[in-house]
Amino acid sequence: MVRMPTDLETTSADLEKTSVAVLGLGAMGQALAAALLRAGHPTTVWNRSAGKGDKLVAQGAVRAATAGDAVRAAELIVVCVVDYDAAGTILESAAGDLPGRVLVNLTSDTPERARTTAAWANDRGVDYLDGAIMVPITMIGQPEALIFYSGPQAAYDKHETALKALGGRPAYLGEDQGLAAVYDLALLDFFYGSIAGLVHAFALAGADGVRATDLAPYLNTITAILPPLAAGAARDIDAGSFPGEEANLGMMATAVDHILEWAEHRGLDVSTVRPIKDVYDKAVARGHAADSWTSTIEVVRGG
């Protein structure tokens, strides 16, 4: 026979629930708060425009009148706003209520801003975790959602259960609060460079009458090799060794020349292609023609 707990009893699941305040209810902030509510964490919400919390209140959230009120109601404080300037203004308004709590900032910015905010928090007796959300809003709260965290491990470990409610693949990177932003910017660097190349590829094919939808299926040939390519390139770069037996930079530089020549012939904007040629040419001039394309990192590093 199953015995239900009385009002005075607490289940093990209840013990893992954390009181959370979410400051900032833009689209992402609302998604974060909703995920916490679905996971059963008592959630207090605050936003300058109070009406943005209406749907969350209907789902069980408590609306706070001020950021300070929200902070006082919770153990874990999650901030997600447009930029660090906005986050700083909010946190300053509630600074007197933050000591003794764990602050998680999921606002995107640079590693320097993350470290500066961490120092501000540390001076006030606040454990500070910086975070970076690596998925779109629709994936928040899903098992495959990746969110980076960096900062005091004890603070992360204490609230890991609540953080997993935001995304099922939390990645703790280390004590340095700037690390989440480092990973964030590096992955976005790769992403934005990739989609710029994708758009240019569609334009290049389209200049000769090929529809984007006809080219797209064949892009899988390229994307399928990226995981092993990235793993191998990372090993070579960390080792400072650039073997070019399979594909050397000189050969690839010639292919880039062909792309650039034809794109210019077709009247396309080549501002996303020319920098690639410039970097390749500089690496070749340094004697890397017979090396792997990974040797271009010596140019990119500026040394």
Automatic annotation (TrEMBL):
Q: Which Gene3D superfamilies match?
A: N-(1-d-carboxylethyl)-l-norvaline Dehydrogenase, domain 2, NAD(P)-binding Rossmann-like Domain
Which keywords annotate this record?
Oxidoreductase
Kindly give the SUPFAM superfamilies that the UniProt entry links to this protein: NAD(P)-binding Rossmann-fold domains
Q: What domain of life does the UniProt record list for this protein's source?
A: Bacteria
Q: Which InterPro entries match?
A: 6PGD_dom2 (IPR013328), 6PGDH_NADP-bd (IPR006115), HIBADH-related (IPR015815), HIBADH-related_NP60_sf (IPR051265), NAD(P)-bd_dom_sf (IPR036291), RedAm-like_C (IPR048666)
NADPH-dependent reductive aminase-like C-terminal domain location, by residue?
Answer: 176-301
Q: Where is the 6-phosphogluconate dehydrogenase NADP-binding domain?
A: 20-172
GO molecular function, a single term: NADP binding
Question: Which family, according to the similarity comment?
Answer: Belongs to the HIBADH-related family.
Full protein name? NAD(P)-dependent oxidoreductase
